[in-house]
Amino acid sequence: MTTTRRLLQVAASPVLAAALLTSTAPSASAADPQPLYGELATNGTFAAGTTGWWSSGTSMASAGGALVATVNGGTGNLWDAMVGQDGIRLRPGATYTLSFDAKASAPAKMRTTAQLGDAPYTAALDRTVDLTTVSKRFTWTFTSGIDTTTGAVNFQFGGQPVKTDIVIDNVSLTTSTAREGFYTDPANNAATWVKNNPGDPRAAKIKSAIADHNTVKWFGDWDADRNPATGIQAEVSDYVGAAAAQGRVPVLVAYNIPGRDCGGASSGGAGSPALYKAWIDKFAQGIAGRPAIVVLEPDAVAQSSDDACMKGAAEQRFDMLRYATQRLQAQGKFVQTYLDAGNATWTLGPDLSGTQGIGLKKMAYLLNRSGVATARGVSVNVANFDDTAIADDYAKRLAAQLKTDFGVTSRWVVDTARNGNGGYVVPGSPSSGHVGFCNPPKRKLGATSRAGSAGGAEYQLWIKNPGDSDGNSSQCPAGSPPAGTFSPVLAEALIDGR
């Protein structure tokens, strides 16, 4: 890399940069030399020395597991000395996150860019920071306005007043990960209601509190094209593709198991095991290896223990769920599947040791029969109300049971859509819990979709879209709409916690 080439990088044209904002995102291709998703920087921890990095106007070495660049003191410009990495794929309209640790042997300024690697060197990100002798983490999330297969990440630090060592470590540039955020379904039920009711005094409130945060889309037998062998592939592909174009992660719920909800308010599903397998094949093919989180068949595993529901078909259900986890696993490392594991207060009857209650041992057995070993983990609390601490505790104990009994490592996600006030307790019955209760009062929105914390869920997700009814059976408050139907009354109650 020549100094002359790098000097030109400060000359980006604002007009050209604005024009590039309207460029069309490139499509994925097997011939693409750079990754499109996930981690785009290579050797960002410098475990392989300085492999993959270049320098200009400075020395560069690996020391103590970090990159160390020494710049002589004197007058000059930041771009007179720099290190960087080429071969970065940047797509217009996609969101990226760049982060790194940095310090200097003396106070110093450093300019950081993500940009075109060639003239006119337009930058999608351009930040100048002050370094001290104490290492600090820098993180920026930005939307690219440039389209290139030859992008670069640069660190510029020339013109320091004294000879200075610049230390850089843990460089990460990602897209379509939880760091960039989850894709919001633009056609979610709350958003559709807001669009259709602009004059309603509740519209602005529901938009800002709910519609703008609904990041999960459910797929089942209600989709536009009900042909189980064709239509679902196009619908999933369009949804996942729209998320990928934004560099955000889509969350999908596959909810089409035969005998769904045991004939309850959300009954339905594919007409046979063969039709279900055809449907899940196309569902998986629609993802096409792009980043996605899939919550697989809420309640299906837990309900497999109900003989009255299964009517002797439990083995068929296990087979279908194993088939589904295998087909989704085959889509590659960017697809994360979580097989549903009910919730912390779901009574399965006696477990395999004869103990009444949730039956961790029994749930672990059912999950193992259903293919959890080929999933990333489990989902808990879907469409329920337990607070996050209770859901995490259940999932953590379940993960330990799976490890002990079957050697399966299981992570988990928690539905936080309606758990802001915890689970509903029937007045006068402190031990009643909430299982089977429909649209309970005084529930509240929980934490919006986000990455989880150490020791807890991998993700906290709004899986059940707030404001969508649980059903209109005799268990539900009078006037409840059918299951899955949006109600502004229910939505406002969740916003206000009443």
Helix and strand arrangement:
Layout: H1 3-7, H2 14-20, E1 38-39, E2 54-56, E3 59-63, E4 66-71, E5 82-90, E6 95-104, E7 108-116, E8 123-131, E9 136-143, E10 148-156, E11 164-175, H3 189-196, H4 203-209, E12 216-219, H5 231-246, E13 251-254, H6 273-287, E14 292-296, H7 300-303, H8 307-310, H9 314-329, E15 335-340, H10 360-369, E16 377-380, H11 388-406, E17 411-415, E18 450-451, E19 459-461, H12 488-496
Parallel strand pairs: 12-13, 13-14, 14-15, 15-16, 16-17, 17-19
Antiparallel strand pairs: 1-11, 2-5, 3-4, 4-11, 5-10, 6-9, 6-11, 7-8, 7-10, 18-19
Helix pairs in contact: 3-4, 5-6, 6-9, 10-11
Describe this entry's structure for a reader.
This protein is of the alpha/beta class. The protein folds into two domains: 3-174, Jelly Rolls; 189-496, 1, 4-beta cellobiohydrolase (TIM Barrel, Alpha-Beta Barrel), CATH 3.20.20.40. The chain contains twelve helices and 19 strands. It has an eight-stranded mixed beta sheet with strand order 12-13-14-15-16-17-19-18. Strands 1, 3, 4, 6, 9 and 11 form a six-stranded antiparallel beta sheet that branches. A five-stranded antiparallel beta sheet has the order 2-5-10-7-8, with no helix packed on it. Helix 3 packs antiparallel against helix 4 (203-209), helix 5 (231-246) runs parallel beside helix 6 (273-287) and helix 6 packs parallel to helix 9. The longest helix has 19 residues, at 388-406. The chain is elongated and about 80 Å long. The protein starts with a helix and ends with a helix. 46% of the residues are buried. The model is unreliable at 1-32 and 350-357 (pLDDT under 50).
